[in-house]
TrEMBL record, chain A:
InterPro entries: Anti-sigma-K/W_factor, Anti_sigma_zinc_sf, RskA_C, Znf_put
Transmembrane domains' residue ranges: 94-115
Protein name: Regulator of SigK
Keyword Protease in annotation: no
Residue ranges annotated for the Anti-sigma K factor RskA C-terminal domain, each copy included: 100-240
Pfam families membership: RskA_C, zf-HC2
Domain Putative zinc-finger: 9-36
Key words, A-Z: Cell membrane, Membrane, Transcription, Transcription regulation, Transmembrane, Transmembrane helix
Localization (cell): Cell membrane; Membrane
Domain of life: Bacteria
Membrane topology per record: Single-pass membrane protein
PANTHER family on file: ANTI-SIGMA-K FACTOR RSKA
TrEMBL record, chain B:
Domain RNA polymerase sigma factor 70 region 4 type: 133-186
Originating organism: Streptomyces albipurpureus
Name of the protein in its database record: Sigma-70 family RNA polymerase sigma factor
Pfam families: Sigma70_r2, Sigma70_r4_2
Superkingdom per UniProt: Bacteria
Alphabetically ordered keywords of this record: Sigma factor, Transcription, Transcription regulation
């Protein structure tokens, strides 16, 4: 995505209307674009005003419940910190996050500076973002034996596959994938010793995409991506765009 | 933290929300009670607009208020007003809830969701007389049809911009632009400054 494109995402960003990858990319851009940051603050305040129109009178028991809950809920100290990140979610959140940063780096999103910035400024937000990803996807990323391999796709797009043998699951990340032609979809395949087994479709709506591959890895030694008619195929009907071997 | 602690000092008669959040950060239950009174109506209304289901809406509203309690010390006034901070938390949590429900549902259910007729007009039916609400309504009325539909579907229904594009049958880039220029027009109409 070009810088000019990123500028136009301020509205979608404050309305929480971006997908997870675009959101990360835009937040990265925000660090380098003070005028975008200012616009985001103004538009967030504007969006908040829209809630006045739908305000309603809360039931009285809601307040009683909330007041009861706060008396037993510990408050967090000011300022972000890694200690809190570890305390909140145990060591796993950190390893998941490190791996996510590696994936971002492999995708060319500037993962290293992203990591440094977030560690310094807002590790907690980053952890929440990771938590918002689907639980299974996060489980693959945070698996102790997760391994990743990156490769090129046609048109300068990049693909990264993360495999966990213990979970018998794999996840596939892409960056810069063009939308497929009308009536076509991307389909993922496990490579079972030369036989392609469907691993589900890839959402073409966003150029940066993370998807949990459907089905177990089992004995597959790699994966492939093909373009198929909408709805997918039971076996590949076109030459693969890319074939990648799983990391060993 | 070397921040001075004012525990025990009586709160001023009418402190604004930002001061109250400062007191909440120090564990002041009375201040939290007043924050609750000030924000719960808009928070519940917003979450309810997105989620529709009353029980789930109250659950998410509770989560939002608990997050305010837990993280009050992390609120940064330089980033915006306390109200904006809380409403941003509320919208994000409501949207997360909707998206996780979508992720769990199969393709048919998802298609059914997208086929559902948008109900953004319903939103403005719930208005009670109030100067600021009237102003928001008036400014919403000043948007182009596509701006208004894009902004209201994203905000009140919690749709991703790709879903807005699908519903309105317009290109993705158009929705991105309408979300931005629609909010900019609202900002100028409402005179929002940060």
């Amino acid at each position: 995505m070009t810088t000019a494109d990123l500028h136009t995402l301020t509205g979608a960003y404050v309305l929480h209307a971006l997908g997870p990858e675009e959101r990360v990319e835009f937040e990265h851009h925000l660090m380098e674009c003070p005028s975008c940051d200012q616009e985001v603050r103004e538009l967030a305040a504007t969006a908040g005003k829209l809630s006045l129109v739908v305000a309603m009178v809360p039931p009285p028991e809601l307040k009683q419940q909330v007041m009861r809950r706060i008396s037993t809920e510990r408050q967090e100290p000011p300022g972000p910190g890694r200690a809190r990140l570890e305390r909140r979610s145990g060591g796993r959140a950190l390893s998941r996050f490190v791996l996510a940063a590696c994936v971002a780096a492999a995708m060319g999103l500037g993962g290293v500076s992203l990591w440094q910035h977030q560690e310094a400024n807002d590790a907690r937000q980053a952890a929440q973002r990771a938590e918002r990803q689907s639980a299974e996807l996060a489980a693959v990323l945070s698996a102790p034996d997760a391994k990743l391999a990156a490769g090129g796709l046609p048109g300068g797009a990049k693909g990264t596959v993360v495999v966990s043998t213990s979970l018998n699951k794999a996840a596939f990340f892409t960056s810069g994938m063009p939308e497929p032609a009308a009536g076509k979809v991307y389909q993922l395949w496990f490579n079972d010793n030369g036989t392609m087994r469907s691993a589900g479709l890839m959402n073409p709506a966003t150029p940066n995409n993370a998807v949990l591959m459907k089905g177990p890895v089992d004995a597959a030694s790699g994966m492939g991506v093909t373009v198929e008619p909408a709805g997918g195929s039971s076996e590949p009907t076109s030459a693969p765009l890319a074939v990648m071997n799983f990391p060993t | 933290m070397k921040e001075p602690v004012f525990a025990g000092r009586p709160a001023p008669a009418q402190p604004d929300l930002q001061e109250l959040i400062g007191l909440v950060a120090r564990g002041d239950h009375e201040a939290f009670s007043r924050v609750y009174d000030a924000v719960c109506g808009p928070v519940l209304g917003l979450v309810r607009a997105v989620l529709r289901d009353p029980a789930q809406s109250e659950e998410v509203t509770q989560e939002v208020l608990m997050e305010v309690w837990r993280t009050a010390a992390r609120y940064q006034p330089s980033r915006g007003s306390a109200m904006t901070w809380i409403l941003t938390l509320a919208h994000r949590r409501a949207v997360d809830r909707v998206r996780s429900a979508q992720a769990a549902s199969d393709r048919e259910q998802r298609a059914a969701l997208l086929d559902r007729t948008p109900e953004y007009d319903e939103v403005t039916e719930q208005v009670e007389a109030s100067l600021e609400r009237e102003q928001v309504r008036r400014c919403l009325g000043g948007l182009t049809e596509l701006q208004r539909q894009s902004v209201t579907l994203a905000y009140y229904r919690g749709l991703a911009y790709s879903e807005v594009a699908e519903l309105l049958a317009v290109p993705l880039g158009t929705v991105k632009t309408r979300l931005r220029d629609g909010l900019i027009r609202l900002r100028d109409c409402l005179g929002v400054t940060v």
